[in-house]
Write a structure and sequence with these properties.
- There is one protein chain.
- This protein is an alpha/beta fold and 310 residues long.
- It is 39% helix and 18% strand.
- It has 13 helices and 12 strands.
- It has an 8-stranded mixed β-sheet, with helices on both faces. A two-stranded antiparallel ribbon has the order 7-8. A two-stranded antiparallel sheet has the order 10-11.
- Helix 1 (12-23) runs antiparallel to helix 11.
- 52% of the residues are buried.
- The protein binds beta-D-ribofuranose and calcium ion.
- Calcium ion binds next to helix 1.
Length: 310
């Protein structure tokens, strides 16, 4: 069983990612940590708890994390967040409000504790801004460096950004946190727009969800908003990009992508804010080649894993 913590800003594609991880028989889901991003932190937490309840997974602890980026003092939902995910983050679908409580421990304390306890057995799958992970590293780097791997959805190495010409949304929301994470020395797999913008699901791909279960039917309702946004903004794609689910699938099946392992950093100057680039200052240091950046994806294999699990 693979020990996993999911760090989410739930978010429509985060919902699919959560459903995949919960549905996978080889996963020991230690907990879910939440962060602002597509919506504010509390909305992301509520969406996460409600979805877990819907899936009958109330035993999975939910730990509330950062409310805003490291270098800001507040959060406002970005335009893209509302367009792709809706004002409530889940396509304006009203899930039944779960009666269960969130855990009292913070996301950062939980991440550090789990790193201490499970060390090189622990994979963190991050699909929102990297603030929680960066704070955990700043708090106890030695413990976090024991983690097996962070598989994260974020960044763009060889392609343009999706919220600015250069930056991808999760990295753009907190480039300083992303820099801390990428330069930490923890083994990282970066699932960026290079591959996620090819991981497209069409409405037809999800036909089987119409009759499968309450969860898949609710996911379809939520996904409708996401499909509509893609039909409007990326009509040429013929479907919707499964950014976060690709990271979740790669955490369990690394052969779905082809990677190159390099030293990677994040630019924080105004013009290139949030751009993920080769870290030229570390190019000669073999030890700093810790980021495996996905540059190619087997889309058919990705779909097979995702759809046979949810
Ligand atoms: C990422 O940003 C969010 O909108 C999605 O949930 C995904 O994590 C894609 O750039
Ligand atoms: Ca996300």
């Amino acid at each position: 069983m693979k020990k996993i913590i999911l760090d989410v800003d739930t978010g429509i594609d985060d919902c699919v990612s959560l459903a995949y991880i919960c549905g996978h028989r080889d996963v020991d889901l230690l907990g879910v940590t939440t962060v602002y991003g597509n919506v504010d932190r509390d909305a992301a937490t509520r969406n996460t708890i409600n979805l877990l309840s819907l899936m009958g997974r109330d035993e999975v602890g939910v730990y509330s994390g950062a409310e805003h980026a490291l270098n800001t003092d507040g959060f406002t939902q970005q335009r893209g967040g509302a367009v792709f995910h809706g004002l409530n983050g889940i396509g304006e679908v009203a899930l039944t409000d779960s009666m269960r409580a969130i855990q009292s421990r913070s996301a950062v304390d939980f991440l550090v504790d789990m790193a201490h306890i499970h060390g090189d057995e622990l994979t963190i799958v991050a699909s929102g801004p990297l603030t929680n992970i960066a704070q955990a590293i700043l708090h106890d780097k030695d413990a976090m460096k024991r983690c097996k791997r962070v598989v994260l959805m974020g960044g763009a190495l060889t392609v343009a950004g999706n919220v600015s010409p250069v930056a991808e949304a999760n990295i753009f929301q907190d480039p300083h946190a992303a820099k801390v994470v990428f330069e930490s020395g923890i083994p990282i797999t970066m699932i960026g727009l290079d591959v996620t913008s090819r991981a497209i699901l069409s409405r037809d791909d999800l036909k089987q969800w119409e009759t499968k279960s309450d969860t898949t039917q609710t996911l379809l309702q939520i996904m409708d908003h996401y499909f509509k946004a893609h039909e409007l903004i990326y009509p040429q794609w013929g479907g919707a990009a499964m950014h976060d689910p690709l990271a979740a699938v790669v955490a369990l099946h690394e052969d779905v992508v082809r990677t190159i392992t390099i030293p990677l950093t994040v630019l924080t100057d105004a013009q290139h804010l949030g751009r993920t680039v080769l870290n030229l200052s570390a190019i000669e240091d073999v030890m700093s080649r810790t980021v495996s950046v996905a540059i190619d994806v087997d889309v058919a294999l990705f779909k097979k894993h995702l759809l046979s699990t949810i």
